[in-house]
Amino acid sequence: MSEVAPELIPARMLNEFAYCPRLCYLEWVQGEFADSTDTVDGRFRHRRVDQESGDLNVPAAEGADGPPEVVHARSVTLSDETLGAIARIDLVETSGKRATPVDYKRGSVPDVPGNSYEPERVQLCVQGLLLRAHGYESDGGVLYFSGSRKRVPVEFDDGLIARTKALLQEARTSAESGAIPPPLEDSPKCNRCSLAGICLPDEVSFLKGSRFIAKPDDVRRIVPARDDALPLYVQTQGAVVGKTGDELTVRSGKEVIGKARLLDVSSLSVFGNVQITAQAMRELLARNIMVAHFSYGGWLNGITTGMTHKNVDLRIRQFQVSGDAGHSLRIARDITVAKIRNSRVMLRRNHPTVPAAALKELERLSASAADVGSMASLLGIEGAAARVYFSNFGGMIKAEDAAFDFHSRNRRPPKDPVNAVLSFLYSMLARQTAISALSVGFDPFLGFYHQPKYGRPALALDLAEEFRPIVADSAALTLFNNGELKKRDFIMRSGAVSLTPEGRRTVIQGFERRLETLIRHPLFNYSVSYRRIMEIQARLLGRHLAGELQGYPAFTTR
Question: What global pTM score does this model have?
Fold first, then answer.
């Protein structure tokens, strides 16, 4: 039986490994990537050398007629199984048997010894070693810095070659270990890293008890406070979502009723009989923009995504933990405790005469949930807490209209306007946490607290639990207490209540407003939006499943 050849390490990934082993693992092993201004600018400056042109000369000795001419070949891919590496070389200058790799870099020549950093030299050295493996003589290469338009020569001496080969072995060992390297601690490299919001270097170090990041004020807000792109909602029945250039267009008949730049769209939600053209769908999938499909009444029917996230290891760990009753219970306890505490905060902040007994009971139930020994008992505690919370929920609604009185939680179908809004908001919240789960690499249908059930996004519901009171319920209270919702925004028929299209539009606006609200993170002490917090929570859950964090730090508001 023949051995399977080991996977080849890309030269660019070796550059990342020399710069930050964790960054290399995230990109190469887990398939994570995020653009920044630096990466976009780098692609722009590479646009010429990324176009294949020319060809490598067959290595040949100099003839009697003198040295052969210099031949240039752009975007050349070479690999070698013995070296265990592969590279796409920006430019190769050949002259007979001699070949010189040229690697293009954005920015200016750095003012350091040798006018270059080790990661850049190592990446260039891999290219030289690959050229040698293909029969060329390659004693050095060139780093071309486009910012200063200067060439910096790099000699492939014994020391650089030895260091390059050692790093190749270390990178392979790291990838095969299945354990993500620890984050850099208090490093200036993190400040401009495009994957900082995925890596969470300071957050993970703080939760692990790093001596460099010992208190919340030490945690840098490397994660952007808000998303630049926002969700697009289309609920006009019969509308068609299409694509024109770099824009999504929404048409009703022949009339264009809406436009949005694709760069500004984070997700698309369509309600009822809204169609999407094949061209628009392909572009959305290519850009990893998820499409949520809702029924006309607002029930989440499904989510369309592009190719599944590359982080297969995370899903393997998710399935392993989901099958471990004890581990699943520990995660479920953390989630439930956070939900009960957040419910208590909502009553304490918004109920003018909240009974002290209710607050005391919720405090007792949260303590009991932390030590419960079975999932069935945990469900019972959560149910008891919900009864206490919703029996006092009506006291937080200050609307004078008796139609908006709230007596108890009911659904399927909701029997009053408040319950109709809550059900719709919970569906919207599940969509948002499902998108967060998918963007991290989870399977949203396999949870730890909510049990798997056909068509139910169990993990999305798990992640939504701690945010139900402080995001969905809070948005509902604001809508009613500020008079944004009127009786005309509801349809009452046969004992059931639903939102009109205009009412749904108002609720969506209130929900998005809440998601964009900046709050001070209780653990990390920086300001960030609720939408971003949901993604952080999904990533922290992933770090816990990977064994990097001992427990899941569920979110509780101050």
Answer: 0.82
